[in-house]
Amino acid sequence: MTSIEAHAKLVEQWLTPPDDGPLWKWAEANIDLTGLSALEGPYRTDVSPMVRWLFNGLQDRETRMLVIMVSAQAGKTQTLMIFAGWAICEAPGPMFWVGASEEACDEFTKARLLPMFEQTPAVAKRMPLQRSEKSLNLIQFATMPLYFRGSNSPSKLKSTPVRYFIGDEIDDWKPGSLDKVLKRVRTYRNSKKVLISTPELSGGSMHTHWLSGTQTFFHWACPHCQHRQPFRFGRERTVIFDPRDKGGFVWDTNDTTRPAGKWNWQELRKTVRYQCESCEGEIYQVEQFKLLQTIEAVDRNPLPENGVKSWHFWAAYSLWVKWDDIVVEFLTAKEVAETGNIEMLKSFVKETLGEPWALVEDAANEDELRKRCGQYKRGEYWEAKGPRRVSRIITVDVQKDHLRYVISNIREGGELRVVDYGRLTDFADLRALQEQKGVANRGVFIDCADGNRSTEILRECMRWNWIAMQGSAQDSFAHLLTSNGKTVQRPFKVKQIDPFIGTNKGATRTVTRISWSNNAFKDRLFLFAYKGKGPLFELPSDVGSDFLTELLDERREAKKSERGATRYVWKDTGNNHFSDCLLMAYVAMDATAFSRGVFNVEAKEYELKESPSP
Q1: Do both 558 and 414 map to the same domain?
Q2: CA distance 76 to 383
Q3: Higher confidence at residue 1 or residue 180?
Q4: Does some domain include residue 558?
Q5: How many CA atoms does the CB half-sphere of 492 hold within 13 Å?
Q6: Do 379 and 498 belong to one domain?
Q7: Which of the residue ranges 17-31, 181-195, 381-395, 450-464 would you say has the lowest mean pLDDT?
Q8: Please, are residues 495 and 515 in contact by the beta-carbon 8 Å criterion?
Q9: What are the helix and strand counts (H, E) for the chain?
Q10: What is the C-alpha to C-alpha distance for residues 257 and 270, in angstroms, rounded to an integer?
């Protein structure tokens, strides 16, 4: 293209009057999803009518913040991509698109955003002509700049005035990042902020901001009785729904669908349908498109913050998601949860239902805990039989003038036996105990959170190749998947740290440190293991009352925020040292993949090796 042609193109763009029509109609006229989406061809809003209200909110001058709490596979990111394209063409202004990390933003820009822009003529003709004006961090359109940033680099957002701010998957951001980012970004007088994410926990960033808005649900009319209702999975109370007596997804449980107590998934799928919460009329997925055409937006919050609109919808609204897949996912997660592993159920609630997670249950009492006593005495180990690995570990809670320890047998599959426990004077005693009990160096896990002794602890870990442990108030930790560039949340994080950093010995050796979510693992230990739910957890028959007292020191409390979000936290009196040791044992099983579990640590050096016999 010659300079004259380029200049003519620029003049044409500036002289073309903006389209003042509805944003969703612009999308239908300009966007083609061929090769970009499960629903190929020209973009249609009738297959997902909820987006019309979202688009109207994005276009509305009175709306200053939009909070969209949705499930995965609900078209949320695609909606924002289309909004960005419309803004470039019809309402230009500097825009920040902020993701969980710079790596996630780079992957998203290359794989999804740029292909759509290049395939949309109205946007493509405004793309920069010079290669230097297009990168993964910035696209300088003829009408506006579009910046891409990671929430992990807030300094790059400082003092940049923007008209549009998009916070993508904000519950994947490091805790506290959203507030920092919002404070660093200066906005125009007619600015608009958009927060969108699948939620994490009750009381988390997404849930809290959603509560501040209109709390809009999408109601459809029952074809049998015309009663209006939103899609919701079940009937029990959840973070955003009250309990009810009927309605939701139903399926048959009989000898055909569950012979001999085991689900026949193929037969079960044939019976999945939705039940009206009013007349109990049954609705099958073939009627879903007609239901969507009856949708109306219903605001639940009569007193939202001025200019804040918030919406919720989830996978059941999506034509490309099969209802029977949703039910099978739930039943599978429920079965796994009954073994003590609640991560799959949490994922179902957050990713498929688009609801914040909260586990509402009372902690175990002493009677329940004493039922965990097995037919063995202190000092007795499991025999290493069968194909499943068995190992011995020591977990240590460090106090000012002594150490508390628990020796555990762990068996592949997440089973744990408390073998012994006690008190030591110093690390020399710990080393002697380790050698006496035949525990491998990588089988010793030590809490390094004591501020007065943390340096000492880390150096002992480096000396003996022990593993440092650190509990955290964080509910989860972001992990970037190298396979697809996506960020996932896990209740622990493994990291190599340098205890000599800042000294002349720095960068010579490192220590493995595992950080974990206190709340997540306390839920698992106190609400499942102590109650006999899940893989075997057993105590010696001669366990002392002093040990049980410390295991029962924690109490679960419900706290409500000013916006009404309920968050459950664990509180202790300070006499919980042995329970902390048990927490570390469960963290060790997960982080080393010994629980067969759910998470795997890529680096081989984190794996527990078979401990030698004493």
Answers
A1: yes
A2: 52
A3: 180
A4: yes
A5: 30
A6: yes
A7: 181-195
A8: yes
A9: 19, 25
A10: 9
Structure tokens at 557: 């409390």
Task: Answer for the pair 416, 589: CB distance below 8 angstroms, yes or no.
Answer: yes
Count of domains for the chain: 3
- The tokens for 125 are 């003709």
Q: Taking residues 227-235, what's their average pLDDT?
A: 97
Q: Which domain holds residue 84?
A: 3-61+73-197
Verify that 344 and 371 share a domain, yes or no. no
What letter represents residue 251's amino acid?
Answer: W
Residue 413 sits at φ, ψ, to 5 deg, of: 110, 0
3-state helix/strand/coil string of 360-382: CCCCCCHHHHHCCECCCCCCCCC
Beta bridge partners of 415: 411
pLDDT tens sequence across 554-589: 887 767 666 556 677 788 888 999 999 999 999 998
| 266 contacts: CB under 8 Å, gap ≥ 6 | none
- Cα–chain center distance at 571: 23
**Residue 416 in contact with residue 535, Cβ under 8 Å?**
yes
Sign for the CA dihedral angle at 502, 505, 510, 513 comes to: negative
Residues 396 and 283 in one domain: no
Residue burial 359-373, b: 16+ Cβ < 10 Å; e: rest: beeebbeeeebeebe
Q: Which residue is it, tokens 């002093």?
A: 546
Q: Could you tell me how far CA 224 lies from the centroid of its own chain?
A: 37
For residue 217, give the 3-state DSSP assignment. Answer: strand
Displacement of CA 484 from its chain's centroid (Å) = 17
On the 0-12 / 13-18 / 19+ scale of CB atoms within 10 A, 221 is middle
- Taking the C-alpha atoms of residue 201 and residue 330, their distance in angstroms, rounded to an integer, is 18
Interacting residues of 380 by C-beta distance below 8 A, sequence separation 6+? 419, 540
Q: In terms of domains, do 260 and 381 share one?
A: no
CATH code where residue 159 lies: 3.40.50.300
Q: Does residue 436 carry a pLDDT above 50?
A: yes
Asked whether residue 46 falls in the same domain as residue 180, the answer is yes
CB contact set of 16 (below 8 Å; sequence gap of 6+) = none
Co-location of 186 and 262 in the same domain: no
Residue 113 within a domain: yes
Let me know the angle formed at the C-alpha of 120 by 119 and 122, rounded to the nearest 5 degrees: 145
**Coil, strand or helix: which one is 464?**
helix
- Give the rounded distance of the alpha carbon of 129 from its chain centre: 39
* Residue 68 within any structural domain of the chain: no
Asked if 191 contacts 64 with a C-beta cutoff of 8 angstroms, the reply is: yes
332: Cβ–Cβ under 8 A, 6 or more apart, which residues? 344
- Asked if 446 and 465 touch (Cβ cutoff 8 Å), the reply is no
The model scores a pTM over 0.90 = no
Closest listed residue to residue 589, CA positions, set 456, 434, 467: 467
In a domain, 204, yes or no: no
Strands (E), 518-590: 537-538, 555-560, 566-571
Residues 6+ apart with CB under 8 A from 58: 23, 66, 83, 192, 194
pLDDT of residue 566: 66
The Cα 147–Cα 95 span in angstroms is 6
